[in-house]
From TrEMBL, chains A, B, C:
Belongs to the P2X receptor family. Keywords: ATP-binding, Cell membrane, Disulfide bond, Glycoprotein, Ion channel, Ion transport, Ligand-gated ion channel, Membrane, Nucleotide-binding, Receptor, Transmembrane, Transmembrane helix, Transport. The chain crosses the membrane at residues 31-50. This is P2X purinoceptor. The gene is P2RX5. It comes from the Eukaryota. It holds the Pfam family P2X_receptor. One of its GO terms (molecular function) is extracellularly ATP-gated monoatomic cation channel activity. It comes from Sus scrofa (Pig).
Length: 409, 409, 409
């Protein structure tokens, strides 16, 4: 570039280029112009701030715990088991009362199995044989119950039989009862205790009435009059999903129970209420499809007087309930507050344990970027996490951009 | 401010200020200008709408249920246990067939433990002693098996020994077998049944072929020809993660199985297919590190004829499989549809049970802000949730801004 | 529209309308103008890029596995059970060492229950009776232990009694011990092994020191000097939540342990460290509320010499620990890199197994839209997932817009 070009560039670099305006000194046009401005401002304030609540800060990192407890007994009288009473300990698996629990509704029992040799079940395609050579010793039966001993067992003079196997004998041969053994489980109830906490706002709540009246939970049922009595009849839960308990009890299935907490924490805590949703989470439209139903096998192990182990095998059909919690809580937007309201503590209710310092929040947003050495972190005793979920929220984010967090435990 | 100033302000308030435009009546320049406009519009329509599918509504609140079932038997012959056949009930923990299951591959068995006093294991550093005063009675052994009785047990004239403890005796002393006891578990199979549902679109699907042919699942194997037969050989699953089953079986480990449903619901349901990913979720690169492997202890409890309890302690090494599901479904964007297409139901296939009314959606988006009283919510019978996931999506959000929801149950 | 109108439209369609500019050749104004431009640019580079790290790509689809192991023994001497030692197998439920485990701290034991008839507990409101007609035979007692036989059992000449029931007899009648039976569990320790992986960046790490020194984990304790020894004393964990272990042990409760990995992968892996948070996840402020505490019942089943089943029923109070992992990893933003840096592999450390090809990523973003046929997907052997989390990230998204993914398994 020549000297002239350089000089031109330098000059044009310092040119100030601006748009040329026309100012119309006309009252009618001016009034219209200002009206337009005011309406845009009104739109922003009314729609974006008040209706859409864009000024709010949202916490989606919900902490939640679920405790479940099933109640109910039923009596059965079968040729196999005789008279038998079933209580919760007998029919709920696992017993711990977590968010997923299985209620046995139908059973195939094979008692007194011992390690021995016996004929494989005729239902296993791979076990059919005509002669001993069809049963190579030591080879497991595919999808079967044991390892072949080398003999083909045929009843009398039959041409076909099944391989003899080394297994827990006798093997399970009975079919699923057509009528569910524990169909009465329809009337059992489940108590679902849910505790939630929004760490950012240090707000917590349960779905159970906070009372000292010990008889409350012994007598109440969930309903319009008792929204804070989360005790549900199993049969009703199933019917709310559009299914029938007795039908479902035969083959088993999965039910999803969803608890949703969508809380506007600018309002009083009493307006932060749980909502319940019930869904069937297995293939209800293909009753006869191979993929329908839910069952599993478990056993109780015993030892006889000689110290030899034996077991009772149960093939349990039943309904699994998966309780899921999701939700979010909203509160005044930090950004807006940091700039416009100095003493925002005023807005928090006394009933929340601690009030988050907004300036502390700003610092936190900074500090989460700089690595915290474990020494700093665990000074003497890690403090109760009050908003340290590590989620920064410097900008004002509209709710619809935020997805609910699903927590399954 | 004086009267003049006020008047000036009032006048300038009603001034209408606008930019001054030049209109060039030149066909070449004009053509270029319009071409530019058209290309921007084309970009928007083609790229943003058709390619990026920004017009779509996305549902990330996937509901999912997993049922797993392991099949396979194996035979072992050890000096300790004699001839023994292991079936699913023996080696899968827990038995319920949930999304996390553990397959025992190696075992240390300590039979016939009773509450008694005996010598602590020599492997416990805290139990070593020279004389009785090294064993303060009543003090538990750190990371040990029992509570000290006060005596130091030394074999013969040895200088060092271990404290006598009150514990389940004899204590476990054997080491992990170098060759996995149940290495044959490599050939076991697992059937992973997954049902998913996008509540917003009321779309559901399973990963199992919808057939009534009962033999299908008894004979099929997952593969290119059978993508809807989710039956996996355990050895193959481990090899797909880059590990070796027999090596992993010695010390144990964790395998993650991820099922991903990324569905464009504008296309037919048959194009919404699951994809499977397999990962090793423990430290495979530090085989000899202290943090490698996976084991736990459990026991079977018995009572002898006199009613005294005894137990068999198992230290089980094995592979835990964690099945995780994530996914999202996309459909026409609400915003665009609400404004431009009135009767959008037309677009939904008849095979979906119910079609969500878009106007209902708009109301829902409103109602989720106003607290719903429990009476309203639970009128008579809670309806099947059809889109009430509480997730509002008023704007058109590009897919890449949305993260997949992980559901672990 | 007439011909004239058409012609006018056509002409105005090709008009090129632009703003009219003023160029002020004034050095002072020009300098000011350029200074303003430079400061905006500086703001963008320094604040948005360097401080806010908007150029980074973020992976929130964390994969995680948790293995837990409790250690500790305690000795009890009660009239009921005699001298008894409790080890991990006795008091931890379930035994598998998953991310949720329950430590029994208090027990009500009802030994030798058999299927028989006996009087219902007086605590069950529904079982109270004055005469036999109050006990309709076959009807289960609501929230009770069995099915009515039809008789009303009254002690001596008392007016009131309870119905006779068919149940597991004798029924549980004892109250919860006021002093926790296993209060010593305070000194038990739990080892929490966590392995995480960011699939997008193929970065993985554990929270345990990578050493071959087998004694390390036998002697270390979590603390400022040992941040990579995740062995926690249960009593300390409870105290960090602001609660007292002995008090909590009486009725039970739930503790949440959160592990957070917020990793800037532009820095060395040694700076990607876990942070631990401890919270109480049940209603600690309503100690006497009906919704406080955590307990469940389980049983051990036995058979006597005659083959008749009997069981010991346990009502276990205790503390459930829920370990949750969340986190995200950030790395250079794709968009920026794709355009400006061709060989970005340079930036990745050799210690990561594989380096993701950025062009591959761009293709992946494309391919995730086109349906992948299972044949393509499962060619011979599904490759280890290297970034195929299906999450596209074409734009530069600020961190604060992204929420942490919570993974509970």
């Amino acid at each position: 570039m020549g000297q002239a070009g350089c000089k031109g560039l330098y000059q044009s670099l310092l040119d100030y280029k601006t748009e040329k305006y026309v100012i119309a000194k006309n009252k009618k046009v001016g009034l219209l112009y200002r009206l337009l401005q005011v309406s845009i401002l009104t739109y922003l304030v009314v729609w974006v701030f008040l209706v859409k609540k864009c000024y709010q800060d949202t916490d989606t990192s919900l902490q939640s715990s679920i405790i479940t407890k099933v109640k109910g007994v039923t009596f059965t009288n079968t040729s196999e088991l005789g008279e038998r009473l079933w209580d919760v300990v007998d029919y709920v698996v696992p017993p711990q009362g977590e968010n997923v629990f299985f209620v046995v509704t139908n059973l195939v029992v094979t008692p007194n199995q011992r390690q021995d040799t016996c004929a494989e079940s005729e239902r296993i395609p791979d076990a059919l044989c005509h002669e001993d050579s069809d049963c190579p010793p030591g080879k497991p039966v595919v999808a079967g119950n044991g390892v072949r001993s080398g003999r083909c067992l045929r009843a009398g003079s039959a041409q076909k039989g099944t391989c003899e196997i080394f297994a827990w004998c006798p093997v399970e041969t009975k079919s699923r009862p057509v009528k569910p053994l524990l169909g009465e489980a329809e009337d059992f109830t489940v108590y679902i205790k849910n505790f939630i906490r929004f760490p950012k706002f240090n707000f917590s709540k349960t779905n159970v009435l906070d009372t000292r009246d010990k008889t409350f939970l012994k007598s109440c049922k969930f309903g319009p009059k008792n929204p804070y009595c989360p005790i549900f009849r199993l049969g009703s839960v199933v019917s709310w999903t559009g299914s029938n308990f007795r039908e479902m009890a035969v083959q088993g299935g999965v039910i999803g129970i969803q608890i949703e907490w969508d809380c506007d924490l600018d309002r009083p805590p009493s307006e932060c209420n749980p909502r319940y949703y019930f869904n069937r989470l297995d293939n209800r439209f293909s009753e006869n499809s191979i993929s329908s139903g839910y069952n599993f096998r478990f056993a109780k192990y015993y030892r006889d007087a000689a110290g030899v182990e034996f077991r009772t095998l149960f093939k349990a059909y039943g309904i699994r309930f998966d309780v899921m919690v999701n939700g979010k809580g909203s509160f005044f937007c930090d950004l807006v507050l940091i700039y416009f309201i100095k003493k925002s503590n005023f807005y928090r209710d006394k009933k929340y344990e601690e009030v988050r310092d907004l300036e502390g929040l700003a610092q936190m947003a900074e500090s989460s970027r700089q690595r915290v050495a474990p020494e700093q972190q665990l000074a003497e005793q890690p403090e109760v996490q009050d908003g340290g979920s590590g989620q920064k929220e410097n900008g004002c984010v509209c709710r619809q951009l935020l997805q609910p967090t699903r927590i399954t435990r």
